[in-house]
């Protein structure tokens, strides 16, 4: 068995499977509850199935992994030769996933550092990649945590949704903000700020909102070397068009990821989501 620092994250990081395999990153799945069915994100429910359920106004909720699931994951990873584990998770403002990981870490057979990144989607994924690259270079648990936290501090996530209703239902945005957006029939642009979803700007039409999203991302990236992720739910044309425009506009673009979000994030944003993550190297 090789001795190494292992990286664990959760399914909302939305890292490509090949990337996770290449870097030895393990993802613990969150759960989507569709009606009376509890389904694991990434294996038992697809983003497309989730979008169809939302469009039919079926009851959809989400839940964290249990501490027992984390405990089993830590035991398995330790059994593969890990001398320490860095466990990186979505913002604790969105989910109890971080708390469940902390409980499990107390009983783990090797030291585990659990980090609330304050991020989600590829904003979390880029943090996991930074930690994995540090570990691959021979870094300690502390080194990997520092690399992840540094990446998180420079990473920004912005997104457009067709409606704030899904975020309001899930308690991820204040009722007053959601009501304000609905009353004026505006199209909202949001951002991650302090681990929370905050309403950033209100634009009159979808096309203007998406154009404004592009401007915000381009301004944030500037000429720096950056990784970009473009996310969507049931809006592949929007995502590919935005990605191509950013590819042309950003002189320092390193990697560009385009992907559909999974069912957990999709349950809280609804179909039509278009998001962009800017993460300087």
SSE diagram, text form:
Layout: E1 4-10, H1 17-23, E2 25-28, E3 31-34, E4 37-40, H2 47-55, E5 60-63, H3 67-79, E6 82-89, H4 97-105, E7 112-116, H5 122-136, H6 141-154, E8 156-160, H7 165-169, H8 175-184, E9 187-193, E10 196-203, H9 206-221, E11 226-232, H10 236-249, E12 253-260, H11 263-269, E13 274-280
Parallel strand pairs: 1-2, 1-6, 6-7, 11-12
Antiparallel strand pairs: 3-4, 3-5, 8-9, 8-13, 9-10, 11-13
Describe this structure in words.
The chain has 11 helices and 13 strands. It is α/β, with parallel strands linked by helices. The strands form 3 sheets. Strands 10-9-8-13-11-12 form a 6-stranded mixed beta sheet, with helices on both faces. Strands 2-1-6-7 form a 4-stranded parallel beta sheet, sandwiched between helices. The longest helix is centred in the C-terminal third of the chain and has 16 residues, at 206-221.
Q: Count the helices. How many?
A: 11
SSE pattern, N- to C-terminal: EHEEEHEHEHEHHEHHEEHEHEHE
Percent range for β-strand residues: 25-35%
Low-pLDDT residue intervals, each spanning 5 or more residues: none
Distance between the termini: 32 Å
Quote the average pLDDT: 89
The assigned structural class equals: alpha/beta
Task: Pick out its properties.
281 residues, alpha/beta, six-stranded mixed beta sheet, 42% helix
Q: In a few lines, what is going on in this structure?
A:
By secondary structure, this protein is α/β, with parallel strands linked by helices. It contains eleven helices and 13 strands. α5 runs antiparallel to α6 and α9 runs parallel beside α10.
């Amino acid at each position: 068995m090789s001795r190494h620092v292992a990286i664990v994250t959760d399914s909302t990081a939305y890292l490509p499977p090949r990337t996770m395999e290449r870097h030895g990153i393990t993802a613990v799945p969150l759960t989507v509850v569709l009606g009376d069915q509890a389904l694991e994100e990434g294996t038992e429910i697809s983003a497309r199935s989730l979008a169809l359920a939302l469009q039919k106004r079926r009851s959809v909720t989400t839940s964290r992994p249990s501490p027992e699931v984390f405990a089993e994951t830590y035991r398995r990873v330790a059994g593969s030769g890990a001398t320490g584990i860095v466990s990186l998770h979505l913002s604790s403002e969105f989910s109890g996933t971080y708390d469940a990981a902390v409980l499990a870490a107390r009983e783990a057979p090797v030291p585990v550092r659990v980090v609330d990144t304050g991020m989600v989607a590829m904003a979390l994924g880029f943090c996991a990649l930074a930690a994995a690259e540090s570990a691959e270079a021979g870094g300690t648990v502390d080194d990997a945590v520092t690399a992840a936290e540094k990446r998180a501090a420079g990473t920004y996530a912005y997104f457009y949704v067709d409606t704030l209703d899904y975020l309001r239902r899930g308690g991820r945005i204040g009722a007053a903000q959601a009501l304000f957006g609905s009353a004026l029939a505006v199209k909202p642009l949001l951002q991650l700020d302090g681990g929370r979803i905050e309403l950033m700007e209100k634009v009159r039409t979808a096309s203007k909102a998406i154009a404004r999203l592009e401007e915000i991302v381009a301004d944030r990236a500037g000429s720096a070397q950056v990784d970009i992720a473009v996310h969507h739910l049931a809006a592949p044309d929007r995502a590919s068009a935005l990605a191509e425009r950013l590819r042309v506009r950003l002189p320092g673009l390193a990697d560009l990821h385009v992907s559909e979000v999974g069912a957990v994030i999709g349950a809280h944003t609804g179909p039509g989501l278009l998001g962009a993550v800017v993460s300087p190297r």
